[in-house]
Amino acid sequence: MIFRSAGFRFGVIYALLLTLSATALAVFLWWATAGLLDRQTEAAINADAQGLSERWADGGLAALVVTIDERLAQNIDDDAIYLLVDPQNKRIAGNLAAWPPSVTEAGPWYGLPVTRAGLKSVANVQRYDLPGGYRLLIGRDVQVRAQLRALLADALLWAIIVVLLMATIGALVVRSLFRRTLANVSATASAIAAGDFAQRVRLTGRGDEFDQVADVINDMLDRIGRLMDGVRQVSNAIAHDLRTPITRARTRLEDAALHAETPDDLRAAIERATVDLDGIVAVFQALLRIAEIEAGSRRSSFAKLDLVPLLAEVGDLYGAVAEDRGLVLRVETPDAVPAYGDKAMIQQAIANLVDNAMKFSPKDGTVRLSASVSAMVFVAVGDQGPGIALDERDKATDRFYRGESARSTPGSGLGLSLVLAVAHLHGGELRLEDNEPGLRAVLVLPLAEEEDGSALRSRPRQVAVGR
After folding, report:
1. Which of the pair, 452 or 273, is modelled with greater confidence?
2. Do 82 and 65 contact (CB within 8 A), yes or no?
3. Which residue among 294, 311, 336 closes a domain?
4. Quick one: which H or E segment has residue 19?
5. Are 460 and 333 in contact (CB under 8 A)?
6. Which of 77, 78, 80, 75 is nearest to 49 (CA)?
7. Alpha helices of 260-306 — where are they, by DSSP H?
C-alpha cells in the first residue's frame, strides 16, 4: 500500500518540515509586525499616562486640561484619544463626546469603536482614576493599524496555502525520486535473484549518497561474483584432483579382490589404497584448515611471540629432509623477531613455504629462510628452482592452482592458499618475488613492539642445515 511505502513516508516528512518551517516564519513575521504595532501603541499610551500624571501632580486639574488640549493640537497623526470627566461623568476635556460605557475598570486594555468628528473608528484605550473622582481615558486610534494587521493576516494565510501546495508537490517529487532510485536497486536485485549475476546498479554520475550506496552494492556484488567463481573453481578442482586418487584406490582394491593370490598381496593393495585415501583426507583437512583460518576463529589465541625459536624449529624439522635431498637449508635471523599472532598458524605457514621451496629446488641448491624487522616483520623463503612466471603469481595463491612447472610435482595446490589465509588473518600479506633464480616468498606480519616501543634489531646470525 502507498501508506506503507518508504517513499510516501519521506515525502510526508518533507512536507511536514516545509510546512512547519513556513508556519514558524509566518508566526515570527506576525510577531515582528502586528505585535510590534500593538507594543508601540501600548508604549505610547503608557508614556502619555506618565506625562499627564506628572502634570496633574504639578498643577492639578487646570494644568491637566491645558496639557490635554496642547497634545491634541500637536498630534500630527491625529490618532491620539483623550477624555477627562468629572465625578458626574461630565466631559471636561478631550476629543470624545462621552465616556464609553464598556470601560468600567482601571488597568485592563479596551478595544472599542469610537466616533471622532463624525467618523467611526477603532481605538485601544486604558482608564486611569484620578483623585477626587475624576477619570481619564487615554488611547490611540488603531483603525489604520487594524487594516494593516488584516492585510498582513490575509497575506500570511495565502502564503501558508501556497506553502502547503508547494509542500504537497515537493512530497510527490521526493516520493517519485525515491521510488526511481530504489527501483534501480530493486531491478538489479531481482535480476540477480533470477540468476543474472552480470547486472549492476546504475550510477548517476553525480557522486551523491545514492551513488555511494550503488558503489558499495556493486562492490559487494563483484565480491560475491568472485567468491562464486572461486567456489566453482574449487569444486571443479576438487572433482578433477580427487578423481584420480579415488579411481586409483578403487582400481587397486578391485584388482586385489580379483587377482590377489596371497594375503600379502591383498594387504599390499589395501595399504596402497589407504595411502591414496590418506592423500584425499589431507586435501579436505587442508581445505577445512583454510576455511577455519579465513573465518578468524583463532584470533583469541593471538599473543606476542619471538619468531627466532620458531624459525629454528622449522630449520631443525626440515634439516634432515634437506640433507636427504642434497640441499642446503640456511636460516638467517636477528637476535629477536618480535611478532604478534598465533604461533601454531605462523609456524605452519612458514613450514609450507619451506616445504614448497624444497620441492622445487634442484639438487645441490640452497633454500634460504630469513627474517628481518622494520615497520613490519618479514619472513622470507628463497629457493633456486624454476620460480613462478610474473603473469601467474596472482593465481598462485588460488586453491588447487598449479602452474606448468608444478604439474609433475606432488602436492594439492593448497600450500600457498593456506599461507595467504594466515597472512590475512594476522593483518599481513604474502609477496611472491623473483629470487634470480627461483622464487622468494615473503610473509609479512605485524610487529610486536617491546615495552619501550622499539623493536630489537641486531646483526643477522646464520645457521646452515643440510649438506
Report:
1. 273
2. no
3. 294
4. helix 6-74
5. yes
6. 80
7. 263-294
CATH code of 50's domain: 3.30.450
Which residue from 190, 189, 216, 221 is spatially nearest to 203, judged by alpha carbons? Answer: 216
Return d(Cα 29, Cα 32) in angstroms, integer: 5
H-only helix segments in 126-196: 143-193
- In which order are the strands placed within the sheet that holds 91-94? 91-94, 80-85, 135-141, 119-129, 109-116
> Is 118 within a domain?
yes
**If you average pLDDT over each of 231-235, 399-403, 432-436, which comes out highest?**
432-436
Q: Domain span at residue 312?
A: 299-466
Whether residue 125 contacts residue 138, with contact meaning beta carbons closer than 8 Å, is answered with yes
pLDDT tens, residue by residue, 143-154: 777 777 777 778
Q: From 467, 457, 440, 185, select the one nearest 322 (Cα to Cα).
A: 467
Do 349 and 307 share a structural domain? yes
For 152-189, the pLDDT digits (tens) are 778 778 888 888 888 788 777 777 777 777 777 778 88
Count of the separate structural domains present in the chain: 3
Phi, psi values for residue 81, rounded to 5°: -125, 125
Q: How far apart are CA 280 and CA 274, in angstroms?
A: 10
Q: State the pTM of this model.
A: 0.47
Triad 86, 88, 91: Cα angle to 5° = 50
